[in-house]
Design a protein that fits this description.
The protein has seven helices and six strands, in the order βαβαβααβαβαβα. With about 220 residues, it is α/β, with parallel strands linked by helices. The protein has a six-stranded parallel sheet, sandwiched between helices. Strand 4, helix 5 and strand 5 form a beta-alpha-beta unit.
């Protein structure tokens, strides 16, 4: 099998999505299973054309898997990533030879998985975005493998704990289960998790960060 990881964050540096990809790969690369893994970054709409080509090419490989990792935007999917999904679905629906081959494929369909991070404390806030991705996967004749909604991800890239420990304890458990499912081609229910600290601590940290951001930009509160 082969795994394509799509980073759908519009931030090129210090994004929670990038940090989650690194933590996922730490879980995924344990063991002796040799799986070809590639990362495709889609930071803006200008990246869509080349990303669409690489994505379609990946779907033609034996037993392909795709993992989307992106932040929650307005309870949905970032616009540049949504644009990529729409153009890809339109391409696969068109009367091209490669499109017909993908639509006729009944065995070894590509499996789509996802990790959605959000600034809300509850990871369940990502439920709508995961359902959007699930509907899209079925539209392009792929199987929905399941997703993980991760809450309390504001500043995730600055968390110092190793995955599976400290504030990342619960997140590590979910990423390990997702890794297991991907390696074995298992389709599972969506699950929701978050950083392992109380809501009041997260709320207080967010308020301090917002106050500092306002001060740095000469905004009076």
């Amino acid at each position: 099998m082969s795994l394509l990881i799509i980073n759908g964050s519009p931030k090129q540096d210090n994004s929670s999505s990038h940090a989650l990809i690194e933590d996922f790969l730490e879980c995924f690369n344990t063991g002796s299973t040799e799986i070809n893994t590639k990362i495709l970054n889609i930071f803006k709409r200008q990246d869509n054309e080349i990303a669409e080509y690489k994505f379609i090419k990946h779907l033609t490989q034996p037993s392909p898997c795709v993992l989307f990792v992106f932040p929650l935007y307005l309870d949905g999917i970032p616009s540049h990533l949504l644009s990529f999904m729409c153009s890809t679905a339109e391409y696969i629906s068109s009367p091209r030879p490669i499109s017909r081959a993908l639509k006729d494929r009944q065995q070894s369909k590509a499996k789509i998985y996802a990790i959605v991070n959000c600034g809300f404390y509850e990871g369940s806030q990502s439920g709508v975005a995961l359902r959007i991705l699930e509907n899209w996967a079925r539209r392009i004749n792929c199987e929905w493998g399941g997703g993980v909604g991760v809450g309390a991800c504001g500043g995730y890239s600055r968390f110092k704990s190793k995955v599976g420990h400290g504030v990342k304890k619960n997140i590590g458990k979910s990423l390990r289960r997702l890794s297991y499912n991907i390696k074995r081609g298992i389709c599972a229910q969506n699950e929701y998790t978050g950083a392992a600290f109380p809501r009041i601590v997260y709320k207080s940290a967010a308020e301090i960060a917002f106050a500092k951001m306002a001060s740095d930009n000469n905004v009076r509160l």
